């Protein structure tokens, strides 16, 4: 199989190099051998399905400490141990192209398409065959049988012609041995060289004869584009999952801080109730809000655990592996671009649109091929046979040119019955119109996506600015209420909830902004991925992390309590990992 793999990788490398733009070839295929597990030929494989009576069940106590259990479930995920695998965003990108199952499947799709091309190419190359036929025959006459042994060996070389037809050269050797016969000449042998050809001149002639090879060649180009497009989409999807994890982690931190604040508020309210300065029901209001915050925190922890475990499975990691999310790295600047410019880029650079455009050409060619099927059949054929000495019973291998035989013929078939072919032509024409409409719809969808991608960036930036303003407003309001000794606990709770909502809105807007920038690159065809799976940013897009242009920390998400040290509130001017380069 080594020769197969080398030929496959050579074609893949050629197709990928033709793409340009930093495209990457998939890794060579490894594996594929079946493991002997036994039971291959069992007609009735066993099934494990015991009845309910055989299943054990132990009821849990309803009064168990579920809060502690939930905290324990999330402990190793939210606060991983020192031996946890630390993964930054670039580490995640590298894992996605080395261990993820979906990336390996995309590689195999490309490899399978290339193997199909190699199969088709081989059909159009000289092909050597050797057929050996052994026959024992007998004939009875008055109860006596004459038996003979005949051996015929045909060594054939065939070649398809580029514009239809086939030629063949064959060396045919015959040997016969009379097994039971009164004849003294019991053994004979002969051989001959046969050259033959069959060539169509009308139907099936021309480039239509190479349709399968042409399509197979084009499919590998489509596969190369599809694979590269997949790598870019995978990077954007993996980044989105990573940002969602950071956002959930930030919401846990926000919720934890609010819960801590509410617990302190509950203690202060209880003291005021004891002193007679507040009514007892006000303490119940604060206590109820504490319980609600605990419930929301438990839900967020479970959400984060589930998200992280699914993320690990997507990366091809063991779900039980402890990982710690590291830094994002360099931030992204927002592009200064108009919707019209984004549309122009997308219509020019999108690889999937180029595939759809070229597949439309395939369907147009299919109509021309179907029209060729309406032509009459006009085929010419010829055979030249050069035998060995026909007068010798045992002639050896020397051919006798003076005994050459030849035949040339032509067959013309009037198209009296072409109904199936006419119906096939109409089918091809209908498919062409459908493909044209599908291409136009796909192209128009890309136009909409490109315009929306630009608007999504500005919308996310706007929401981020509003959320930051809301955070400051609610923070000042909360500080003002905290300084008032007669502040209504319900008013403080409302202000705390408003602050929490604003912080969560800020984190959501930041996630949306980061995703929008990457989605813009993917939508307009400007996303590029390095061979190791990391992001290959356009010149000037990455925000510097050192020097005078440093804009602050790359990740503004606050860490939950107990993870990564003490929590500090971000200031309104803190860098958010995205910078548009505008005042």
Any overview of this molecule?
Helix 4 (101-123) runs antiparallel to helix 5. Residues 546-583 have low confidence and may be disordered. The protein is α+β, with helices and mostly antiparallel strands. Strand 3 (144-160) and strand 4 (166-180) form a beta hairpin. The longest helix has 65 residues, at 419-483. The protein has a six-stranded antiparallel β-sheet, with no helix packed on it. Strands 1-6 form a two-stranded parallel ribbon. The protein has a two-stranded parallel ribbon with strand order 7-10. It folds into two domains: 2-25 and 65-116 and 218-355 and 440-579, Outer membrane efflux proteins (OEP), CATH 1.20.1600.10; 126-161 and 165-203 and 377-413, no CATH class. The protein is elongated. The chain is built from ten helices and ten strands.
Describe the protein's topology.
Elements: H1 2-19, H2 66-78, E1 85-87, H3 89-98, H4 101-123, E2 127-141, E3 144-160, E4 166-180, E5 187-200, H5 211-274, H6 280-314, E6 323-325, E7 332-333, H7 339-349, H8 351-372, E8 377-387, E9 405-413, H9 419-483, H10 489-523, E10 578-579
Parallel strand pairs: 1-6, 7-10
Antiparallel strand pairs: 2-3, 3-4, 4-5, 5-8, 8-9
Helix pairs in contact: 1-4, 1-5, 2-6, 3-5, 4-5, 5-6, 5-8, 5-10, 7-9, 8-9, 9-10
